[in-house]
Amino acid sequence: MQVDPRGLRFGAAVTTLVLAAVLITGNPWLLAVQTVVFVLGAFGAAPYALFFKRFVRPRLGPPRELEDAAPPRFAQGVGMAFALVGLIGFAAGVTPLALGATAAALLAAFLNAAFGLCLGCEAFLIIRRLQPGRIS
Amino acid sequence: MPYAMTGLVVLGVTLVAGTLLGWALTRRSGVLRETRRETRHETGRETGKAVEKEARVDFGEPLGERATLVQFSTAFCQPCRATRRVLGEVAGMVPGVRHIEIDAESRLDLVRAFDVMRTPTVLILDSSGNIVKRASGQPRKADVIAAIGQAVLPDVLPDVDRTSQHTDGK
C-alpha cells in the first residue's frame, strides 16, 4: 500500500499539537483521544491522514511521489505504546510517567513533522540488533 | 498552577531536544564518506579479523565487475524505496556496476559486521570488494555516480578516456 508523504507530515504536525496540548493542560482525555488515533493509524486508518485526503489534498494537487505505508503504520504502533504508558501514568497518578511517555511520543511526532524523520523506524533496526537469540 | 509549569517545561525541553536530534540526524544523512581501513579499525572490535572478513564477505549475490552498490534496508524504512530507485538507476546506467539490496533483519550478521545503525545504509565497493564509500540515509544520485568514478578509477587508470566517458554519462 502507498500513501501520500504530505499526509504523513500533516498527521505528524496535528499529533505534535495535540500532544503539546496534553502536556500543557495535563488532560488525560485528550491523550486518550490521541491514543485512539494511534490505534486507528496502526491499523491503516489514520484519521488525520483521512482528513488530509478529504480536505487538504484537493487544494494541493497530486503528490510528486508516494511512500510505503508500512513504516508510518509501524511508527503509529510505537506512538500507541507510548500513549498507553502515558495514560497509565495519568490513571495511576504517576505524573513523571505520564509526562515522560507523552513527551517521548511528542518527540517522535515533532521529528516527523519538522524533519520528515521516522524515529520509530530509526529505532527499529537498533532494537533488532540488540535482541539476542535471534542471530541468524 | 504548578502542573502547568511542569508541563510547559517538559514541552520546551522536548522541542529543543527534538530540534537538536533532528538536526544531528539529517545533517550528515546521505553524505557519502570516505572509508579507510584505519577508520574502520576504530569501530571494529577485532582489528585483524575485520579486514580478513571484509575481503571474503558474502552478500548473497555476486559483486559487480567494476563496482557494487550495497544497500541495507528494512521493511520499516521510509527513504529505502527512493534509495533503491537511485541506486538501481545508477547500476543500470554504468556498465559493470551492480546494486545489491540486503534485508537488514535477515542479515544481522552483516549489520553487525559493518556496524549498520540506520537504514538505508549504502556501501560502495570497488571491483575487489573493498568498501570505498559509505553513507547512511538516502544519497544523491550525482554523489553516487561520482563515488563510483572513484571506485572504478584505479582499475581503468591507463584508460582515462573510458572513465571520463562513463562519469560524464549523466
TrEMBL record, chain A:
Q: Which Pfam families match?
A: DUF4395
Q: Which domain of life is it from?
A: Bacteria
Whether Transmembrane helix counts among this entry's keywords is yes
Does this entry carry the keyword Transcription? no
Sorted keywords for this record are:
Membrane, Transmembrane, Transmembrane helix
Segments crossing the lipid bilayer: 7-25, 31-52, 73-99, 105-127
Question: Which parts of the sequence belong to the DUF4395 domain?
Answer: 3-129
| Name used for this protein in its record | Membrane protein
What is the species listed in this Swiss-Prot or TrEMBL entry?
Acrocarpospora phusangensis
Its taxonomic placement starts with:
Bacteria, Bacillati, Actinomycetota, Actinomycetes, Streptosporangiales
TrEMBL record, chain B:
Q: Which InterPro entries match?
A: Thioredoxin-like_sf, Thioredoxin_domain
CDD domains named in the record: TRX_family
Looking at the record, the residues that make up the Thioredoxin domain are 65-148
Name of this chain's protein: Thioredoxin domain-containing protein
